[in-house]
Amino acid sequence: MASGSEKTIPPPKEAVTTVVDEDPNLSNFDDARLSGLGYKPELQRKFSLLSCLAVGFSISNSWFAVSAALSTGIGNGGASIYMYGAILVALVHVCVGASLGELASAYPNAGGQYYWVIRLAPKGCKAFLSYLTGVTAWAGAMITGASVTLVIGQGVVGIIILCRPEIVYKQWMGFVGYQLTNILVFFFNCSNRFLPGLNKASLYISLTSFLTITLAVLIASPKKASVDDVFRSYTNNSGWDNDVIAWLLGLLGVNWGFSCLDSCVHMAEEIPRPEKNIPKAIMGTVAIGFITSWIYSIAIFFSMQDINSVTATPTMVPILELFRQALRGNIPGAVFLEVLVILTAIGCLMSIHTWQSRLMWSFARDKGFPFSSHLAIVAGAPYSVPLWSHLLSCFWIAVLGVLYWVSTTAFNSLLTGGILMQYISYMIPVSLLLIRGRRISIPGPFYMGKWGLCFGCDGNYPQLRDRILVRPGKESF
């Protein structure tokens, strides 16, 4: 987007149309449309709606996020954060998901947010805004990957400490677990052959684990908390005198379970009919996430026996101590439930690797990174994935792990910043759409119409499938 040979993208209504049959190598409409946008179809469309939904939900995994960020919520609002904060956050993400779905339906491209900015921003600030969007989106994905990697590493160390109480947790233990996890999960994304099936499996594992843990703690817990304790109690151990600030800080943990909604967007070139399937996957992620997290939160807070022991556990894994209490001190049972959480987290990290590698690959394809000529390469069979982008992304996750060893405070602050970066990458294209009066010349099949104040949208999408394609050209950094 900064070169002398830069091409200008005209509005779709003014663009020259070209018959798809010009290129005999374009076998279907999805690849033809992508070629019409100036991009060569390189990735195989092996993902279905279910496997794309599995990627989105496996990353958000809202019920798992309750387990991973339990100590944050307990100290900043207590049960009320999960009972009412989850409803508030879910409603916000319905709006976020609808906005992303509308843009993904109109402009299905693996670049996602930064590509939408290219289509929406004024020419004078297009390069800066699209670059800012792409960098913040990728950084948010990297930091999210680091947070889940740490959860897995700490979970394994926590199990060891629970079984061997004489061991005292040290930061280097979490660091070693972090790095081993990052290396092992790296291999799941090295080939596209089994990736859709693995993502479906992670979805089933997550839902099965959710049901198993929810029923186990409710049935086995020796006593149940009162309705007042679960729905009306409030706790402020944050250090802030202002309860409102403490409650808002507690929302960060809940929000973590609904973040990363753009992950499905970056699968646009690996799924058929992305203009329809991606919005469905996004909204499905929010719906399943809210239902599972809210029910799960009710179950664990009704089953909690001693909140002080949960927050001060020597294992450094509060949910593991909660499992031990709920199962009447049964350590093997608590370990089993924690293993289910770890398996869910592995599926989550696997999908995050998919997400961040596609982000880096698509951004490098438009020359947004150093060494873009290498990072934009899709490895041949049997890999069929952007292997260099995947490798470099995992390398930077490993680098972020060093920060945890140096300072847990700095690392935790970085995780908070990761959520902010994701929202910045969403805010820029959505704001540009609002500035344009929410006018999309040729909207996709998913558009909000009067509900989104989308004046000027006629929804006249079906004509685009008559083997006629708009070829607006391609811009690069």
Uncertain stretches of 5 or more adjacent residues = 1-27, 454-473
CATH topology: Amino acid/polyamine transporter I
How many DSSP-defined strands?
A: 2
Helix content: 55-70%
Average pLDDT? 82
Keywords: Membrane, Transmembrane, Transmembrane helix, Transport
Protein name: Amino acid transporter
Subcellular location: Membrane
Transmembrane segments: 47-69, 81-107, 128-152, 172-189, 201-221, 281-302, 331-352, 387-407, 413-435
Characterise the protein shown here:
- The chain has 477 residues and is mainly α.
- It contains 18 helices and two strands.
- It has helices at 29-36, 49-60, 62-68, 70-75, 79-106, 113-120, 126-163, 171-186, 195-220, 227-231, 243-256, 274-303, 307-311, 318-326, 331-365, 372-375, 387-406, 408-435, and strands at residues 17-19, 468-470.
- Strands 1-2 form a two-stranded antiparallel ribbon.
- Helix 2 packs parallel to helix 12 (274-303), helix 9 (195-220) runs parallel beside helix 12 (274-303) and helix 17 (387-406) crosses helix 18 (408-435).
- It is globular, with a radius of gyration of 23 Å.
Topology summary:
Blueprint: E1 17-19, H1 29-36, H2 49-60, H3 62-68, H4 70-75, H5 79-106, H6 113-120, H7 126-163, H8 171-186, H9 195-220, H10 227-231, H11 243-256, H12 274-303, H13 307-311, H14 318-326, H15 331-365, H16 372-375, H17 387-406, H18 408-435, E2 468-470
Antiparallel strand pairs: 1-2
